[in-house]
Design a protein that fits this description.
The complex is a heterodimer. By secondary structure, chain A is an alpha+beta fold. Chain A has twelve helices and 13 strands. Helices cover 30% and strands 16% of the residues of chain B. Chain B contains nine helices and eight strands. In chain B, helix 2 runs parallel beside helix 3. The longest helix of chain B has 17 residues. The model of chain B has no long low-confidence stretch (mean pLDDT 95). The chains are: A alpha+beta, B alpha/beta. Chains A and B meet through strand 2, helix 2, helix 3, helix 4 and strand 5 of A and helix 1, helix 7, helix 8 and helix 9 of B.
Chain lengths: 375, 305
């Protein structure tokens, strides 16, 4: 009988053949196959009766126990960091800060509207007021005719998820038939989450012409706004002054800012001048805004048709920053992210809290623009 | 300003932690609390990795890392073995102090180490040495980089950790290293504390860091260098967002490291659920606990329609 010699093995294959367990042992050839697999040369075959195989299993298990921690560690090295962390300490759960409530609510609104699977416009905005720059704001716009199968019930279902106050809900139901499209608005702050539903009327060309001739505005949006964290709700009316000339817009701005401050009026006028260099004033859209519950008196000038970028009004934004004493670093960090995006509209005037403000909307993606649709 | 094309593909590299001792005491050291008990890969384990890769050709480059690998006397031997096993590149991650010895540099280069990832914590000796806790460490690091500049076929990369103590110097770091001909890539890593709070008060506000980081990116790119910013919110980088690169090679390390690493809690952001960014690590737990969510400053990338 030849003396026994040890042959190291790097691979094996197990098979059942009748009542036997057959184990092929082999060695890696070291040359990868074109398929990426590794070829193995079988060096030995061992056949075991089932009982022998069972005893071998027990012995193998016992033999490996002293090495199990090290082997688990070796296996874990092949895992992703997250999986390796769980494998190393299954009971350890990292302590994370509480989720930002506004982020969760914003995500919920986007999910609910997105789930309709219809085209919608997404437009973000920022607000500057004394000492504050708020940029966690956006609008989602959907044509009511696109919302299947019953626009009113679908829209109310979204509003219900955001706990719309009953009196606003009733008003929304009452006026919903006039809506050509709806806008869902969102503003998140640590101590305030404001949800909004705008009903946008269909304004025909004839109605707009009549309003222009009579020098009268037409109601364009009826908006319901409520705060999830505070007991606050308002109804806002947006009146469109169709096809105003630049001089007429300036006159309206003077009216809005009749009690000041002159610095903000100058900024609004400067934006208007910039926009009318790129597009006729008549193709801009000038709105004025009222809220019955308070002294809000403000305007909204849509300049998308002027095809400006946010960076085109950088000097004006710097002026706003200075006027409102916004921290330069915060402003710059925000500005750098949005400067290459399309400038949408500027709202400003006296807000419902009696304070001067500007809202700047930018970077809409999605549906065509209002004026183009009207034309 | 767009930067030069990327030079290194993380998937081409494997990092192996072969040493967990260091002779500096950097305030921002991410393994400071774990160096004592993390187990480095043994020589046998390294040999197995080399042998496996010789068969599979999974990686082109090997990075020897851990804490300070130049403290291992057999570092040249490891590099030679890696080269003999077919690795096209061998890199070390180092604070570079031993590289101030030109003969030692030559020994490493001769052994096949052709890429040097060197930590430069600040732009001047006073700041750097205060961070590392070792007087003279800045001059030695700089001398090491200058020594490496003498060897053809060698490239150097630098890593500067962004902390409260360093962020104002980021552009100055770029300028201080402007003379190095073989410096091809500069990396700027936002500090993470490996726990849920910033106990050392080292995390700066991203808003404070931003102008310095962007200036450093611009200046380094103007010098023809690739720049990688790590662990910084992508949106805040604006037009420089292409500098963000959070990808990393496969890291072979004691698995006990990962539960500690996970305490950082990356990928948190108020806008995470609807931001279209695919590569941002967001904020980490310690950052949020210190500065809040910045929900009013971080602007999510618009969802794709």
């Amino acid at each position: 009988m030849d003396p026994m010699h040890a042959v190291p093995s790097e691979a094996f294959k197990l098979a059942r053949e009748g009542d036997d367990v057959v184990i092929d042992f082999g060695r890696l050839d070291g040359v990868p196959l074109p398929s990426g697999l590794i070829s193995i040369s079988v060096t030995d075959r061992v056949t075991l009766k089932l009982e022998t195989a069972r005893r071998l299993l027990v012995w193998l298990d016992d033999s490996l126990k002293p090495h199990s921690a090290r082997m688990r560690a070796e296996q874990a090295k092949a895992l992703s960091p997250g999986a390796a962390a769980v494998a190393a300490r299954p009971d350890q759960t990292p302590q994370r800060p509480a989720q930002d409530a506004s982020g969760e609510r914003a995500a919920q609104l986007l999910r609910l509207v997105g789930a309709w699977g219809v085209p919608h416009q997404y437009e973000r905005s920022l607000r500057l007021t004394e000492g504050a720059l708020q940029a966690n704001r956006f609008l989602l716009t959907v044509n009511t005719s696109d919302i299947p199968p019953d626009a009113l019930s679908q829209v109310l279902a979204v509003c219900d998820r955001f706990e719309m106050p009953a009196h606003l809900r009733a008003a929304a139901v009452e006026h919903f038939a006039m809506a050509r499209c709806v806008h869902f608005g969102f503003e998140g702050q640590p101590d305030s989450i404001v949800c909004k539903l705008y009903l946008e009327r269909e304004v025909t060309g004839q109605e707009a012409d009549r309003a222009r001739s009579g020098n009268q505005p037409v109601l364009l949006h009826l908006a319901f706004k409520w705060d999830l964290l505070r007991d606050a709700a308002v109804t806002t009316r947006y009146f469109w002054y169709p096809f105003l000339s630049a001089r007429e817009v300036e006159a309206r701005l003077a009216h809005v800012y009749r009690d000041g401050p002159p610095g903000s009026e100058a900024i609004a006028r400067a934006l208007l001048r910039l926009a009318v260099e790129r597009a006729p004033a008549e193709r801009l859209q000038y709105l004025e805004v009222e809220e019955a519950e308070n002294a809000r008196r403000s305007f909204d000038l849509n300049v998308y048709n002027a095809k400006l970028q946010v960076k085109d009004i950088h000097p004006l934004m710097q002026q706003m920053r200075e006027n409102f004493a916004i921290r330069p670093g915060q402003f710059q960090a925000l500005y750098d992210q949005i400067k290459a995006l399309a400038l949408g509209h500027l709202a400003g005037g006296v807000h419902r809290n009696g304070k001067d403000f500007f809202n700047l909307y930018y970077g809409a993606v999605g549906l065509p623009k209002f004026s183009e649709k009207l034309n | 300003m767009a930067g030069p094309a990327k030079l290194f593909v993380p998937a081409d590299y494997v990092e192996v932690t072969v040493h967990f001792k260091c002779n500096l005491a950097c305030t921002h050291c991410m393994i400071e609390g774990t160096m004592d008990w993390l187990r480095p890969e043994s020589n046998d384990q390294l040999a197995k990795i080399l042998a496996d890769n010789a068969r599979r050709r999974q990686w082109k480059g090997l990075t020897l890392t851990g804490a300070e690998v130049t403290l291992r006397r057999d570092l040249p031997d490891m590099a030679r073995a890696a080269r003999e096993a077919g690795f096209e590149h061998v890199r070390i991650q180092t604070h570079g102090n031993r590289l101030a010895d030109l003969d030692y540099c030559r020994a490493l280069v001769d052994a096949g180490i052709d890429e040097y990832f060197v930590s430069v914590t600040a732009a001047d000796a006073a700041t750097h040495d205060a961070i590392t806790g070792v007087p003279g460490s800045f001059e030695r690091t700089l001398q090491g980089l200058e020594n490496l500049d003498r060897f053809s076929g060698v490239v150097t990369l630098t890593n500067t950790v962004i902390t409260n103590r360093s962020y104002r110097q980021l552009p100055a770091v770029v300028q201080r290293l402007a003379h190095l001909r073989r410096l091809v890539q500069m990396e700027f890593w936002s500090y993470w504390p490996m726990r849920e709070t910033d106990e050392k008060d080292l995390i700066p506000s991203h808003l404070d860091v931003l102008p310095y980081l962007r200036a450093a990116i611009h200046q380094a790119r103007a010098l023809g260098r690739v720049v990688e910013a790590k662990n910084f919110p992508e949106c805040l980088l604006g037009a420089d967002r292409d500098a963000l690169d959070n990808s990393q090679p496969k890291l072979i390390i004691d698995p006990e490291f990962w539960p500690e690493f996970m305490r950082n809690g990356f990928h948190q952001c108020a806008h995470r659920a609807y931001c279209a960014s695919k590569s941002c690590l967001g904020l980490n737990s310690a950052y949020v606990n210190k500065y809040g969510w910045h929900a009013d400053v971080l602007i999510p990338f618009a969802p794709e329609h």
